[in-house]
Amino acid sequence: MSTGEKARGPSAPGSWLYVYSDGGSRGNPGPAGIGGQAKDESGHLLLEVCEFLGEATSNVAEYHALIAVLEACEELGYDRVRVRTDSELLANQITGAFKVKSNLLRPLHYRVKGLLDGFRVVEVEHIPREKNYACDALANRAIDEGQSGVLKAVLQPGDEGLFPAPVACDGPVPPERRRRNEPVISRTKMECCVIGTGYVGLVTGACLSDLGHSVNCVDCDSEKIDALCQGEVPIFEAGLEAIVRRQFASGDLRFTSDVHDAIASSEFIFITVDTPPDSEGKADLTNVDSVAREIAAAINGYKVIINKSTVPVGSTRRVERKIEEAMDEYREFDVVSNPEFLREGTAVSDFQKPARIVIGSDSQKAIMRMIELYRGIDAPLLVTDPVSAEMIKYASNAFLATKVSYINAIANICEAVGADVREVSLGMGYDERIGFEFLKAGPGFGGSCFPKDCRALLAISVDSGYDFNLLKGVIDVNREQQERVVKKVERVLGGLEGEKVAVLGLAFKANTDDIRESPAVKVTRMLLEKGAVVKAYDPQAMDNTRRTLSGVEFADDPYQAVRGADVMVLLTEWDEFKWLDYGRIGELMNSRSIVDTRNCLDPAVLRKLGFTYEGIGR
Ligand code: UDX
User: Fold this and answer.
1) Which residue's CA is the nearest one to ligand 1's atom 16?
2) How many C-beta atoms surround the C-beta of residue 608 within 10 A?
3) Global pTM?
4) Residues 32-68: pLDDT tens digits?
5) Would you please indicate which residues are annotated as catalytic (active-site) residues?
6) Ligand 1 contacts CB of residue 442 (under 6 A)
7) Is the pLDDT of residue 12 over 80?
8) Ligand 1 centroid – CA 445 distance (Å)
């Protein structure tokens, strides 16, 4: 299968290769298949492709069919090709007569363009359906047999009977890893290195190797690297440990501190280092700059350098400049913006099933390589310019933060007018323009991203001369939300001095051990400052909290935390808190009083048990 090299000239000088393809689905989208043939000028069949695509639309199938045949033809050595298709849309799109608007089709379109770039002369012809019967038959056969689980691959003339296992993949793709619309087209194992093994780096490195690539994860913290080589994963993230251990054992995932060697032996270089905020809230790029210098020192051939750290607008150009300045001899490279949208707690599935993949680059070559790298991930691929890609990251996070601050502001009005914010957000969410996501009122947003990215975007807006009042409001509402929670507890207790407060939850949200900018920790700190005696419990985040917050007594379990307490304050929506025995909790507490800042308990049940209950916005 293809290695992407340009064709070396025809077996018969000047002769044409004829490529026929057809893809179709039963039910748009529906079960889809592709068929294709390549013939020489005398009509002699050179090869055939017949493959089941799983669930796809016809247009997508049309593109996959052409890609599969062109890929199979790369080794044949022709430099001129006549593409014949009965899809008018496809014919006009690849000639450029029609613009490709669909994000689903765009990456496939780039792939076809790239493959056709391998020929010196290209002609495209729209042929009537009946002239393409063979490919149509192959595509239908693929659907019939594909649905029965028989995978198809490239057929060389003379191949008989049912088809062998897919070509070029390392052995057959196990069914559980085969996505419904993932074509079994050859996927090359790419050499990647990921610099920085924090949240983003470790998840990216592990999942890239799980995708079939060979990955070097690099970090200057050699102790961390040693621990990772022992299979010790320093972060609590669902599914990550299993992938790290499996891929490390397979040899496709390696951990090293030797950044030079890792860069030299890789084509794809991911920058996933920390960009902490400086005193003005701007992202500090010291780590990114030092990686750029490392790359300049180690570059030994074409490299695709991928900015995955959250970096200010214009950073792609900046990294390019830094590398060029530091290179002693010019070598070809491209820098791509490829922002991540991983959420803590669901980062592995967010990588494997992203809402979209954003690629910001002006280099067709780099875009093509990136599409190849992410082949096998079933998601819309948005190809755009670097600056827009960088803005997509900030704009997305700031918008989600705006939704959270908005519903918190609405919750505060609900409290005053006697409405229930949960009902209100439900009523809002049915409107698809609003959606249900990120409309849960609570103690405000936290974590390593939203607060930092909102401040960084505000700094970018100031530098660009735009007064971003809306975002200032989002940040202010968020800060006030923690203060409002403390006031609520104070009001419930009639003061805080010497009062025993049981805090359930310290992580900034459930299913993570992360307390960075955690609203729960901020509220706890304020309670302590006002003289409360705090006993806290969190299933995962107590170690991290011990390192940053003193004056708190940590409990082994929620029941120990509430023993003798005057109030219980629920600050993180861990599932286990919803299923506690509240009868027993009531008996253990000094007085039956609950402040539920995540609205995840049932007030009616608790009131029946004699509790006073305060939520947020209800
Ligand atoms: C976020 C983005 O979701 C992710 O795409 C990006 O890559 C990184 O930042 P994360 O920081 O893991 O991910 O947290 P997220 O799940 O988005 O929650 C952010 C904060 O908002 C948390 O404190 C959470 O408790 C709060 N939140 C979220 C609410 O208060 N209400 C909601 O409805 C949703």
Assistant:
1) 343
2) 10
3) 0.74
4) 888 888 888 888 888 888 888 777 778 888 888 888 8
5) 449
6) yes
7) no
8) 7
